[in-house]
Amino acid sequence: MNVYHVELKEITKRFSGFIANDHINLSVKRGEIHSLLGENGAGKTTLMKILLGLYSADEGSLWIDGKEVHITNPRIAFQLGIGMVHQHFMLVNNLSVLENIILGQEPGNVSLDMKKSYKIVQELSTKYNFALDLNAKVEDLSVGMKQRVEILKILYRGADIIILDEPTAVLTPQEADKLMKILHDMKQQGKTIIFITHKLNETMEVADRITVLRNGKNVITVNKEDTTPEELAKFMVGRDICFTIEKSKKKRGKPILSIENVKLLPQASDTVSLSVHEGEIVGIAGVEGNGQRELEEIILGLRKYKNGTISLLGVNINSMTTKVRKDLGIGYIPSDRHKRAMLSNFTIADNYLLGYHFRAPFSSKGILKKREVEKHSKDMIECFQIKVSGLHQSIGSLSGGNQQKVIVSREVSQNPHLIIAAQPTRGLDIGAIEYIHNQLLRLRDEGKAILLISAELTEILKLSDRIGVLYKGELMELKETDEYAEGEIGLLMAGRKAGIGTNG
Amino acid sequence: MEQLSSILTGDFILLTLRLAIPIILAAIGETFCERSGVMNLGIEGMMLIGALSGVLGSFFSGEPWVGVVFAIIVGAGIGFIYALLCVRYKADQVVCGIGLNMLSLGFTTAMVHAVWNRDGMSGTVAQVENVSIPILKNIPLLGRLFEKQSPFLYLTLIIVAASWYFMYKTKIGLRLRAIGDHPQAAESVGINVTRYRYASVILCGILASIAGAYLSIVQNNLFVQNMVAGRGFMAIAANIFGGWNPVGSFLASLVFAFAQALRLNLADLNIPDQFIQMLPYGLTLIVLVGVAKKAKGPEALGKI
């Protein structure tokens, strides 16, 4: 019996103007974890939406267990045992975990049978080691736990083909590890898992087989054992990708930013002091939630701090507002792109104006000069190779990578001395990541001071001249990148200094 | 002091309950409506039309219960139209609600003129009689609750209990709560959100209409122009104050009714009448400013 559990044959889907899926084939074996790899816009999500009955294919056929099926709506997909964990969770915040899971398929006739529900769901939860409190309200859960609720919801509905759309995009590294473990457990129980992602390391970690899509077309399907991350990256992007970059060794110049004795988190027992010099990138590593957000916001004056001093170019900026700080020469790439860096419904041109609307040449005497703004936006779009259909397109309609390019180009266009780049590549695909990295290195070589705050350790290691590690609001260490021993940063991120606490 | 002690009597409690009935009914209607994600600021207008419908039904048939039934039918119809506007055509709910209030005021006034050829007040019609419940009325203390009271008092209490059970103990109730917070999530598990919204808004129309009919053919025996006098807005406030929970709405309505009852009882006290008249409305305002800011309603309320 060599019948595939799920087979998509020659699937073609056209949207007005472009082909999202061009004769794509995908075969998934029962009980395997199959990674669907590709950059944003490669057609992964479209393909899965076809399998889920949310879109209908223009051409091609779907086969489950060797039988052709016609999935015209999500209900049919449900009945065939297909379930999907969406990128944006479909959970009701004010209801309990249990209520969310049984919603729509509640045990009992008219009245809710909560006892029975609890028993059924608890059994499932234990079976897969979910460790969820079923009576907790969903709004009180961490993102990782919410995701587990979503998975449990699908399992409760009897799915045995489980699709996960970029599941780790929103997770912290530990939560991602936990998810990998759960995927593994589900595989052991015979579930078939389709894992949509653009991250190579997780693909290599968890997948049995990998199908790569590029520009809506099949590139290849391979066994994990037969490939390498470098090869996969090449398949995804269509050209060679550099994983390591040669950095020119430069002497660092005078200090631009210095932070002295600032307390990041109320529970931290020690304060943080660090400085960033001309022509260097200082990377701040650490698991999210250890004071990174506080650090970026304190430097920008978005968050109040009681003690310590922050100075820029030797000037104490403690009492200055965010606007004055930015005017002194800080470019800011915030970690929360949607909340802090852009207005989704505004046009690209207006977003270029954001924060600089009072400056010449964009305005004079309080009147905006639209023409100047448009000219500037056009220059930036050209210079940074941003894919847009027009200046008056809303920024929210761009892909994440292009949104970030707009933000980065805006923040560096005013020639700042210091750039705070917080999680600058979160959620971006490989091509965009490479681009942003090259930009940061270019700025460094131009002599800018860059503070890079990132949860991606590979990014920190690749770009930084010096690396600091944050743990519970304290700076565990700060030294030259090549002074770190192998694995030392990982230990520091977990709060352990070399030589002490080795019993853990 | 003497004045105060005379207030807190059995009579006063019964008066509060009676005054609370229309607010409770409308507030529970509003709760259902908002739980489905539809805001209904037009509940005042729905009540007014219900009040007129009750009088019309009673006037043409001579039988007050026919008036009640007629009010229910008209209420369902108004609810359906409101749902059509807000759910089907996704009209702005604030505009629709306020529009409905204005329309109702004009429409009812015009109707009174057309039917009775009088301004501001209809002719008198047959009224729903009070009832006494045998045996229960002989219980000491509590017995008064069952003696010569409006059947609507019992009906209202039953609706409160049934609504609570429905909302928190049934499948449909769970789904309704889910819809108000995250309609896409409800839809993704196969729930027909639109159908729930229609049903909720229509139910709200019915309850508001009964509340209006209570004012016109139970408490009174005629229709008076603008006789709802802000009770619809009190119901909206009670719904918020009560945390979008039928029992909460019930208790909050009692608070507002208490203020109304005070108004009636303090009339002969040495306080300028205007201030006393203001009491229930002032309280509504305070609740809306003070409590509503912190209250957490259905997350997707008003977004269709």
Describe what you observe in this structure.
The complex is a heterodimer of chains A (504) and B (304). In chain A, 32% of the residues lie in helices and 24% in strands. Chain A is α/β, with parallel strands linked by helices. Chain A has a six-stranded mixed β-sheet with strand order 6-7-8-3-9-10, sandwiched between helices. A six-stranded mixed β-sheet of chain A has the order 16-19-20-13-21-22, with helices on both faces. In chain A, helix 5 packs parallel to helix 6 (173-188) and helix 14 runs parallel beside helix 15 (430-445). The longest helix of chain A is centred in the middle third of the chain and has 16 residues, at 173-188. With 304 residues, chain B is mostly helical. Chain B has a domain at 24-228. Helix content of chain B is 69%, strand content 0%. In chain B, helix 3 runs parallel beside helix 5 (93-116), helix 4 (64-88) runs antiparallel to helix 9 (193-218) and helix 6 (151-169) crosses helix 7. The model of chain B has no long low-confidence stretch (mean pLDDT 90).
Assembly type of the chains comes to heterodimer
Number of domains of chain A: 2
Note the gap between the termini of chain A.
48 Å
CATH architecture title of the largest domain in chain A: 3-Layer(aba) Sandwich
Radius of gyration of chain A: 25 Å
What's the total count of β strands of chain A?
Answer: 22
Question: What would the keywords be for this entry?
Answer:
heterodimer, A: 504 residues, alpha/beta, Rossmann fold, 2 domains, six-stranded mixed beta sheet, 17 helices, 22 strands, 24% strand, disordered C terminus, B: 304 residues, mainly alpha, 12 helices, 69% helix, 0% strand, globular
